[in-house]
Design goal:
Number of helices: 2
Shape: elongated
CATH topology of the largest domain: Immunoglobulin-like
Helix content: 25-40%
Radius of gyration: 32 Å
Order of helices and strands: HEHEEEEEEE
CATH class of the largest domain: Mainly Beta
Number of strands: 8
Strand order of the largest sheet: 1-3-6
Strand content: 25-35%
CATH architecture of the largest domain: Sandwich
Number of domains: 2
Length: about 140
């Protein structure tokens, strides 16, 4: 009678009927995960394409700014020049109890004004919150 040598490789176990459904299930899970990842990537790509990765530049006019102006003090809240990229949005929040002017915007007390820039250029206007009473917005 021949005996198997201890160094001989063992034959792989025969596939059991229960192993096949488990293998098929793992493939379904992998495909579902791939589908979800694909959808997430597609949404992110769409969002960047639609939004263009544009950003917001926020300017906040703090409470008490009008009082500084009335007292003859420097009301400078922001630099007199703001640099934006085409597609960016300027958001100005007025936390003061008086209206303020910022370029083409007049912002009521407690209000927020937004303006988007879809063309490159140099836009100058009056400002009640800068040292020289003007603001220039450079859009590149």
């Amino acid at each position: 009678m021949a005996t198997a040598s201890p160094d001989a490789p063992e034959a792989p176990p025969a596939a059991t009927p229960a192993a096949e459904p488990e293998r098929a299930r793992s493939w379904r899970v992998a495909l579902a995960v791939a589908a979800v990842v694909s959808v997430v990537l597609a949404v992110l790509i769409w969002w960047v394409a639609v939004d263009g990765g544009n950003s917001q530049v926020r300017v906040e006019i703090p409470a008490g700014t009008a009082r500084l102006l009335a007292d003859g003090k420097d009301p400078s809240v922001v630099e007199g020049e703001i640099l934006l990229d085409v597609g960016d949005e300027l958001v100005v929040l007025n936390r003061d109890d008086r209206p303020h002017v910022f370029g083409s915007l007049t912002i009521a007390p407690g209000a927020t004004q937004r303006i988007g820039y879809d063309q490159a250029g140099r836009f100058a206007g009056p400002s009640s919150v800068t040292t020289d009473s003007t603001v220039t917005i450079l859009v590149r």
